[in-house]
């Protein structure tokens, strides 16, 4: 659902951010509750055009936007490309982004996971959006702060068992309206919530490795 209201953001609750890396760097930002996941913001930078910005600039924009957030705890999601080294650096993309936040007083918990086939992500995200499985939370989106994410999601299509990514190379489509945002969104929801779909006797299974620093 898409709505706007004063109750969709809690400055005293941890934030989830999920990355899509590349020339177009984007993050979705959400807060998770027992029965809801609320997407409250999406942000991006584009390393192209007349005023190029990179992932360091995106981190700076995030820090500035959430400077008043009181619970400075981040859960960081993304696909395995975030483990690639940044150009001219010994750090991975995950590490460099996280270190920028840590320098401003944030704690960052990195969630490490592998990639998932598009068709499986599509199956699970479609079930989430239907909202009829009592084991799974409702997904809400801020209609103003997530406007680009909304357009990106509405334009995403499957082509066979793969996501159709032609929009990412279509010059007539703004990068923020192509499928970039949907990848970070899919990974966050799949890896963060798919365990709820499992049977209760499987709840003890460790689904991902977490490191806190």
The run of helices and strands is EEEEHEHEHEHEEHE
Intertermini distance = 34 Å
Shape: globular
Count of β-strands:
10
Strand content: 15-25%
Strand order of the largest sheet: 1-7-4-3-2-5-6-10
Summarize the amount of helix as a percent range. Answer: 25-40%
The total count of helices amounts to 5
- The averaged pLDDT comes out at 87
Rg over CA atoms? 17 Å
Largest sheet: 8 strands, mixed
Structural class: alpha/beta
Low-confidence stretches: 200-213
Characterise this structure:
The chain is α/β, with parallel strands linked by helices. The chain contains 5 helices and 10 strands. The chain has an 8-stranded mixed β-sheet. It has a two-stranded antiparallel sheet with strand order 8-9. Helix 2 links the parallel strand 5 and strand 6.
